[in-house]
User: Fold this.
Amino acid sequence: MRHASALTDGHQLQLIEGGDAYFRRLVTAIDQARSQVQLETYIFNPHGAAALVAEALERAALRGVRVWLVVDGVGTGRLSRAWARRFDAAGVQYRIYSPLGALGLLIPSRWRRLHRKLCVVDGQLAFCGGINILDDRYDPHHGTLQHPRLDFAVQARGVLVQQVQASMTRLWWRLQAVRQVQQHHFPEALSALRSSGLDLPWSHDGELAGGQARAGLLLRDNVRNRKQIERAYLRAIALARSEIVIANAYFLPGRRMRRALVLATQRGVRVRLLLQGRYEYFMQYHAARTVYDTLLAAGVEIHEYTRSFLHAKVAVIDAQDARPWATVGSSNLDPLSLLLAREANVVVADAVFARQLAQRLEHAMAHDSQRVDAQTVLSRSWGQRLRDRLAFGLMRLALFLSGHRY
Assistant:
């Protein structure tokens, strides 16, 4: 049985596609909160539709709900002055994970980012996925998008909620401790560190609602969970019987995962990848194309999503079989996610959920993507291939400087 130790029964799960649907569910949950809301995100950009979430946090704090918001120091940086004033006035408590100093990303230790996207409301309802608090039709680097980016999240009830909340609470108190140390408040810092291991008295509001689905939380950090997500993927791929479908925005698998995919095709498993088809970032876009030759030669099918930007980090394996496996989360299959960032994925062993996700990916591949074949790769110009190799080299150099191999 796949991941028996990581999965528990009794969850209610709902697959969410796209920022608009995700924001509607977040706002509804936050507006119904009675005691506390915890939200973590890489990008917090209250522009357009994303402003609805910021306004919901503000309303919750004004009515006495404890609101904790954590954003990443690169993905978000500082909140705008207007929203910082509004949050301070309402009582929203917010922290910036690893803010950049004067040298910025020139210091390799600062490449370790908070990339997960999590929310817990009243200890009853959790959200996990790849969707930032960012309008789906707006990109900070590319402006207005004609079509929304493709991304997914999961809404969950059950034991999984406690796992998500425990992780978020530990991080919050550790950030509190760092803040107190910076202000030379050492006793307060020690108290915050002690609190990071405690369940807060308001952390569970009532009975946890149960369901039928089997699911679990996978975390990646730089302490105890360095390989958890990658190993889960490798185990699931190794156990695949009929089909593997992976949709990943920034895809540059290491040797072990490339080998696992190749071995899967050799034993008759159909392997399909839905990858980024539109230029977004130089390194991620070009470095990914250096592995196309090997994968295509092995029989892996590659589809590039072209309707808009692909931001999904999901997979579904053997959706039609007796033991389906699916994952939705924030982790890309590239070295930045698998070696450096804090990530969170939900793993699901449920036929209804797996088939629903498989259907959405099937539709995206059939209607919103272009199939890549060996001839297409061979016809790439020398200039494109040079950029691919340069991007791959820069990625490897970055890993070397950070002390990692991949």
